[in-house]
Write a structure and sequence with these properties.
single chain; 189 residues; alpha+beta; six-stranded antiparallel beta sheet; 2 helices; 11 strands; 30% strand
């Protein structure tokens, strides 16, 4: 059968051409689907990476909080006490300091530094006022009182006492009268 002057071929050639076109179409469809899946997978990977970064950041913050938790439970308070029975008479004064351990574990090597000023008097454990040498240990829930040597009251305004101690992990800390807590990085156990 001849239709005009064009030779349309036979059925197997037509069948092969249709099958080849279908295979080409299926391949193009598969490539398009794979590209979409790859994009979706990349987006999912980026989301998971961001979640991982946030979790790592939160975990690092939690570790830092645990690391400083005991040290943050230590309080340091000061007051100036005036005295009349000292060489400077009514102009005599000294620092009275209290270190309070509100944490769940003891702190050790507790001292109060008066900017290198002469050695402070012995610490006194409250409430029974038993004398203790510095450095001392302050148990959980305990308060230790320290006092400086008496001097002229004008000299006290140039002195900025700090409290030094070690936490249960052996890390050294410094706490100033304004509540600023700093870690001594050279003492990591």
């Amino acid at each position: 059968m001849v239709l005009g002057s064009i030779n349309w071929g036979d059925a197997p050639t037509w069948f092969g051409s249709v099958a080849g076109a279908a295979a080409l179409g299926f391949t193009a469809f598969t490539v398009r689907q794979q590209t979409k899946q790859l994009r979706a997978q990349q987006e999912l990977n980026e989301e998971q990476l961001e979640i991982f970064r946030l979790e790592r950041k939160a975990l690092a913050a939690e570790v830092r909080d645990r690391h400083t938790a005991q040290a943050r439970g230590v309080k340091f308070s000061l007051q100036i006490s005036a005295g009349q029975d000292f060489p400077d008479g009514p102009d005599s004064a000294w620092y009275s300091a209290e270190v309070t351990n509100q944490s769940d574990e003891a702190i050790t090597d507790v001292t109060v530094d008066y900017n290198g000023w002469e050695e402070p008097q012995a610490a006194r454990l409250r409430p029974d006022r038993i004398l203790m040498d510095q450095p001392c240990v302050v148990g959980p829930g305990h308060v230790v009182a320290f006092s400086s040597q008496p001097t002229h009251i004008d000299r006290l305004e140039h002195i900025h006492p700090t409290c030094q101690f070690k936490d249960a992990a052996g890390v050294s800390w410094t706490l100033d009268q304004d509540g600023r807590l700093t870690e001594d990085l050279s003492t990591h156990p």
